[in-house]
Sequence to fold (813 residues):
Amino acid sequence: MTFVLSMNGIRKSFGATIALAGVDLNAAAGEVLALVGENGAGKSTLMKTLSGAYKADAGEMFLEGRPYHPANPHAARHAGVCMIYQELSLAPHLSVEENILLGIEPRRFGVMDWKTVRKRAADALAELGHKDIDPRAITGSLSIARQQMVEIARAIASGCKVLVLDEPTSSLAAKDIERLFHLIRTLKDRGCAVIYISHILEEVREIGERVTVLRDGKSVGGGATSDLSDSEIVKLMAGRDVEELYPRTHRQRSEPVMSLENLSGKTLPRDASLVLHRGEVFGIAGLIGSGRTELLRAIFGLDPVVAGTIKVEQISGPASPAVRWNQAVGMVSEDRKREGLALNLSIEDNLVLSQLRGLGPPGFVLPRKVRRTAREWIQKSRVKCRETGDSINTLSGGNQQKVAIARLLHHDCDVLLLDEPTRGIDVGAKAEIYRTIDDLARQGKAVLMVSSYLPELLGVCDRIAVMSRGRLGPAHPVGEVDELSLMTEATKTS
Amino acid sequence: MKENVSQIVKKLGPIFGLLAVVILFSALRPATFATLDNLQIILLQTAVVGTAALGMTFVIISGGIDLSVGSVVALSTVTTATLLARGWPPLAAALGAIVAGLLVGLFIGTMVTKAGLTPFITTLGLWGAVRGMAKGLANEQTVIAPDTWLNGLLTSLPEDKKWMLFPPGIWILLVLAVIMACVLRYAIWGRHVFAVGSNELTARLCGISITRTKLGIYLLGSGMAATAGILQFSYLTVGDPTTGTGMELDVIAAVVIGGASLAGGEGSILGSLIGALIMTSVANGCTKMEFPNWAQEIVTGGIIITAVLIDRFRRKGIS
Fold:
């Protein structure tokens, strides 16, 4: 088979973090190659290297047999490599046709040749079978699914040979997914190589002919989709057996520590009720946007509570992060970089930030005590770092997340609200965080954990409830559910 | 190791800058620049901007900005002079000026935390409004005040007081600087200032009250500006509603030269003081070189840009 695109031995690191440690990937014209891997496996970095947003430290790339080293995304697009990211990169205030030809505007005598713009935009939309999209419409007024079509039309208009779609279905409804798949097949028939990034195996099976698996920045295997079973792919992705990844010691569920009654936020959640006990890990599954994060934020006093009550140790009252910390309730944010950590502060400052009392005379902190305390937690949480005084930015994502969790340990929290605690980190760090969660539950702490990754919830939690459209379903003991039943409950329409 | 070196460079960078400036002018004008008397003059010239820079350091570390400093200095000189003229004792007059400054800070803090205005817009408004208040209070004239010990804060010491080493105004600056440096480094509130400036969302997540922290910061900022105004009054010996025009920019420049980041989360009291010293040394040196005013202004502007450029390269070096 001749490949239109070959990537050989691609390496890339950011400071101490090795994002890609030698990736090989080949794609032929007219095929859909599925690229799978867990969060943090290096999929996005690899694709950013392909599209010229990053420059690889080592390795080579060939496009149609010729060496290919794009200096920037514009050069990549010019060479025929287009990316559709999860966050669409359209200018919302411009019209559809302007967006389709953005950056490659035809000119006559130095001014925009509007006639050609219209024609080429209309051609591209027609080719996709989407004549129903008005080329003059303001892009921001279209639905997300349609905006995605516009972005794919842009790729067609620039004559793309390799199209990369990064988790394109994450914000689409079922009907739109069908249309997208139809469109991908159209592109394939035109001779375009499509690289489809996803971690949803059903999608990979439906649309992909071959699959390449990434783990910890390396390509670890793959082959024809029809030759691989789901469990083979999962094992390639996780790199180890599931039992080894998720420790589960004997836990003793005891008295309730926090209860929610008909909790409603401004829009999400709606009427959520649950009782959290000491000594258990309670998981919340659901689609992105179903209100899981909003539920945790409402509990923690970060978002307003409109109706319902939250009782912590039988005490209800106004909620704010300060009140919650005082009640020994702690939270890890889903967005480590934007909210979870102050990236230009040191590791030790980030670790002790919620609890500075006790680190010096009243009202004061002594750097010496901060350092000693931080060192202790760094060691217990197995954070790999040189000095606790270094900027937290020097750590890898997994180690940063361990610090974010260590903050709750330092605070000696009884209730831990963890929002996507393992998002975007490597498998080794994940395993250590699972062990920490298990330890906490065994010590009689209560953990309420939100995750989009079902195997993790099934592996770590004692009980799981599904959130759907802001409503929290009943709590199921983990033995009574599996991925399919949780997914069905999460996507049910009523 | 790389980070450690760069941390040392970051801490010492402003000191090297100051040394370079001093050595340069000492070599060029050994007879007039490198004298003890001139050193004292430089310190006296630094006192006002330096005192205001102490407060501005907190404001900038928290990610904010205060453009009303020059106007608060003017208001403070006028308030002090007016109260003295009405027969208030000097200490009470000075405290009155500080209260006026604190009221301005309270207004900024309330607007920023409760009304959600940006510090830039709020203090840009006050830059004009407070200047106007100073002019109104002074009837658009300088306010003559009776001679009191306040006038002696920033004049060279008489023979019988040489044991004090520096005029009292310098001591006020140094004592305040030590207190502020300790607050910033060792007080829980000081750590909160850094956290708020580095990432406000993280600070909120960690249970830090953003409102209380910022209110304190702007009270401190304007309070220090008012204190600087008392020193300025001592220097002028009258209340002058037009004094301190553009001083906010000198103060901000001093803090930034001293290593603070306008994006917040970084800065130090020592750095800001050295930044202020660099600014006055350059101005003083240029005068000794008999540069015309316009040339001085170009040199000062060049130094601000160079300092920030060096800082940028240092950052790029570690990331």
